[in-house]
Amino acid sequence: MKKPPREEPRDDLTVTPPKTWAAGVPAVVHALEYSLEQTSPKDTAVDLLTMNQVDGIDCPGCAWADPAPGHRHRNEYCENGAKHINDEATTRRITADFFREHSVSDLAGRSDLWLNQQGRLTEPMVKRPGSDHYEPVSWREALDLLAGELKALDSPDEAVFYTSGRVSNEAAFVLQLFARAYGTNNLPDCSNMCHESSGFALHETLGTGKGTVGLDDLHHADLIFLVGQNPGTNHPRQLSALEQAKRNGARIVAVNPLPEAGLLRFKNPQKARGVIGQGVRIADRFLHIRPGGDLALFQALNRLLLEAEDARPGTVLDHAFIRDSTSGFEEFAEHARQASWDDVVTTTGLTREEIERVRDEVLGSERVIVCWAMGITQHKHGVPTIREIVNFLLLRGNLGRAGAGACPVRGHSNVQGDRTMGIWEQMPDSFLDALRDEFGFDPPRAHGLDSVNSIKAMREGRIKLFLGVAGNFVRAAPDSAVTEEAMRGCRLTAHVSTKLNRSHTVCGQTALILPTLGRTERDHQAGGEQFVTVENSMSEVHTSRGRLKPASPLLLSEVAILCRLARRTLGAGPGNVRWEEFEADYGTIRDRISRIVPGLYDFDRRVARPGGIRLPNPVNEGVYRTATGKAMFTRNTWRIPDVPEGHLLLQTLRSHDQWNTIPYTLNDRYRGIHGSRRVVMVNPQDLSTLSLSAGDRVDVVGVWPDDTERRAEGFEVVPYPTARGSAAAYYPETQVLVPLDSVADISNQPTSKGIVVRLERVTP
Ligand SMILES: Nc1nc2c(c(=O)[nH]1)N[C@H]1C(S)=C(S)[C@@H](COP(=O)(O)OP(=O)(O)OC[C@H]3O[C@@H](n4cnc5c(=O)[nH]c(N)nc54)[C@H](O)[C@@H]3O)O[C@H]1N2
Ligand SMILES: Nc1nc2c(c(=O)[nH]1)N[C@H]1C(S)=C(S)[C@@H](COP(=O)(O)OP(=O)(O)OC[C@H]3O[C@@H](n4cnc5c(=O)[nH]c(N)nc54)[C@H](O)[C@@H]3O)O[C@H]1N2
Ligand code: SF4
Ligand SMILES: [Mo]
Question: Is the pLDDT of residue 527 over 70?
């Protein structure tokens, strides 16, 4: 067993020039370094060789798709996938002694990095009212306690059930079934803070919340937009798909306030030419956009396309598609033609010529795909921006055909599957009706609480019990001080987790840690060895089967914990729900799912085939389940972000060495930042206007019209080529700056990428 570090790592910043290419040999070296520090060479090899293989473990990292069976490389994973898997497969362990040594207050003062580095949780623990220590508890007592509290609530709506996208389809399905059988739709999830804006925009305009493209479409597109995403770090194997697209002749336009290494060049570590050569250029055009400028950019592009059609009628727009498959074109066109160039240039920070050159790229392309992620969804106008992207695709019929379409690039490995399984506080009646018909009870119909509204309800004392299945709610959610106080006001907080994190240290009167199996581990139940299933960003549902011995004999699977809790809370039933059967044999869960989710008929049998099942996307069959029965053009307006003089628009983002709320090290190799995460990246010209220089110490202070001061203390200034007027700093350290009330219109998603701040110099 490896020893965890006892001391907090000390900040010691060094800065080198940002990298201009991603991956290559250093990626392999760094992956192995982190892996061997966490676990043994044997376990590393077992994990990595079965990762993303047919019948192996699905990478617990991002939701990027695997190539078709038969086209997979022997090492079908990236540097970060290797780090994520070994972070779970670590041989470090947290035992009861650890909690005797460390009080809850002590742990609450530790960094996210240190907490994670202590290793895997191994037995259930309880913190009782009035105590400052977790102590061991049996599974029986822990689940009785939780069930007892649930039964004692005045209303089922006083509980919330949070899920993160690591959770398998089977566990997600059981969780939402339990919550609804218990009587509430309070099912907030990480998606509320991630791609919620994509879901709303796509549902409204296309009648589906999911992306419309597969890997093969990317390989055969002529033009690919990468908007508001950092694939070199967050979806590394997307670069392999882009490399292949480029070999087939695709051109790529990247839109980002930061010149991210992976957008510039890629050296594929699986290929000889990637190891010794220059690698491939990724972006043919890089648009150095101001944060929040994308709606203006796409509207300007749409205006240019309409004008090009005026100049050469019948050659630019796909008239047949617009006539037969869309609605609202005239209103949209009238509005888009009025986009003011002055406003576009101010909002985007781009020149008209730059945007015209992109128009020319579009006019020269038959098949266009737009990919996007958090740089779009986490802004106040995330939803209208995505609607404008849809307008852009519709104009030339770039939907529902090969090599073209919309590609929201999902984060967590199963975040999309969790939604398919019913993890959403607003599931439509069609799903609830199917649950009723299958199980014989009537699920509640009133919409439940999402993540932001759960915190508000907790703050007002309307929520008394929080159960989190995976994730780190306290650090994923905005406005740390507000969120932590709200959580502390609960009667009971409980977390089903693999590893220790900050959420375990922010306790209700009673708190429970319910340790669970990770995806890398064997899952043995009464009905034999089980596998689970997941759905990737391209709607492919496939199996995942762990290979390693569980981190502790006391661990239960997520499905087992939830089924046992359900039985204790609800007794047998309701209706014909069979919790015991579900726990013994996950195939029985899949059988039920197959009668509820239309594309998953005969689920258990079909998913076991190599490559699994690709869920149909109605858009690709020419079906639009929208209000008009057609794809909808929309009219979208924007406001130039209001950033007073002397202030900057801050985005909170991920370093290369972290998984969401969990930093693995203090380094961010591609951005040239080493030894500290308390840095704020600012354009050198802005620094001189603000009379600041490299290495200055500042507090980052949020500006928001309420009485709360939001201050992130002790950051070092790093000059960085971010767009003028903007700044970037790491999440979750800057979570304290995101006001709970600062949310995207319509989707209610926190605006983690658009926060007005000022930098206050601190004198040493
Ligand atoms: N290694 C690693 N991989 C991950 C994760 C991780 O934490 N670590 N997290 C996973 C999850 S859950 C998710 S959701 C994804 C997130 O994947 P990304 O969306 O790539 O994640 P972020 O780090 O938030 O980066 C946002 C990118 O958008 C850019 N951006 C910010 N504002 C704007 C804007 O206004 N316009 C444009 N055009 N660009 C903008 C930023 O400069 C940055 O490049 O990654 C997944 N994969
Ligand atoms: N300011 C700011 N805030 C953000 C974002 C941002 O860019 N900026 N990004 C948002 C996004 S996109 C997302 S997705 C959320 C992420 O929010 P979450 O998904 O809630 O957070 P994670 O950091 O992924 O959760 C890590 C924890 O999950 C647990 N875990 C890991 N694997 C398993 C497993 O297999 N089973 C169980 N039961 N537990 C497991 C471990 O205990 C680990 O500590 O954060 C959001 N918050
Ligand atoms: S691209 Fe994503 S899913 Fe694939 S190996 Fe890397 S982290 Fe895992
Ligand atoms: Mo995410």
Answer: yes
